Amino acid sequence: MTDREQQKEQLKQLIRESRVAERWSKSRRTIQRWRASGKMPRHIRIGSTVFYLIDDIIAHEDALTSTGKED
C-alpha cells in the first residue's frame, strides 16, 4: 500500500464534529461544550475542523449505553 493509499484509509476512519452532532441529534455547540468539559473522546483538529476517530465515537457510545440492568 502506498503512502497516499494509507492516508486515504486513515481519513476514512475520521468523523467530523458536525456528523457526530447529527448522529446524536445534538447541536454542534453542545458537542463543543462537551469537548471543552472533557466529556468527549480525544479529537483531532485539522485547520478549523474538528474530527474524531470513528472507533472512539463508537466506543464512547457503547460506554454510555445502558445495559437495562439495575444496580
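(ticket continues) Second input and output from the same batch:
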Amino acid sequence: MRAGQRRGAGAAGAEGRWGPPGDGPGPAGRAASAAAALATALILTACGAPVGPGGDQAGVRSRPAAGAGTSAAPLTPLAPLPEGVTVVAENPPGEDPDRAAVAAVVELQAALLRALHGGDEDAVLARAVPGSPAAGTLSDRLAEDRPAPAGRFVFHHIAVGRYTPDLVQIDACLDQTAVVPAPTEPIQWTGFTMRRDGDGWRAAAILTDPVGLLPDGPCGT
C-alpha cells in the first residue's frame, strides 16, 4: 500500500466527511446530530460518566465558547503535518478546560491527516474512547480507498457546552474549500463529543452535517 491510499470502503463514503452525514442541510439535520450526541452522552453515563443536572440538549447546544467574540489565539497542531497540509482552529475558547478540549479536536484532525498520508494509524485511534462511535467512524475513515487530502482545514464558529465537567460537546464549522482533492461537501458543521481522559480528552462521537455558507446557516459569514 503506497502512502496516501487507504484500503477498503468505510461508512464515511467518498465525500470528505468525518462520518455519516446528518439528515441533510438545515435545522432538521443539525437537530438529529444533536440528538445523536445526546444519546452518546447517555450511553457514556452507563459507562461511568453521569450526566448531571443542566446536561440537557438545549444547554449543551446553545452556550457560546469561552473565546467567542474575542481575539483568542488560534490553535494549531503541536507536531509537524505532512507537506501541504494545515489545520487551524480560529477564535477558539480562550481558557481551559474548553480550550484544551478544542485543542484535542485539532490534534485528532492532525493525527488523522498524518495517517492518511502514510503515518501511524494507531495514533488516530488512541484519540478516541475505545469501542465508542468515534472509534468506529475513525476506523472507517482510515479504511477508505482514496487519495490523501491536502490543503487547509479550518475550524471556525466554535462553541463548547458541557454535559458534565468530564464530558463536553464541541460544535464547529469545518472549512475544506482549500482542500484537494475537493470534497463534495466542503463546508460542514461538525459535532465532537469529547470525554476527559486523565490530563487530556478523547472523542466519544463525531457527527457531521453539510451546511454550506447560507447567510442564516451555522457556518454563514
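Agent notes: The first helix runs from residue 27 to 46. The longest strand covers residues 150-164. Closing as not reproducible unless the customer responds.
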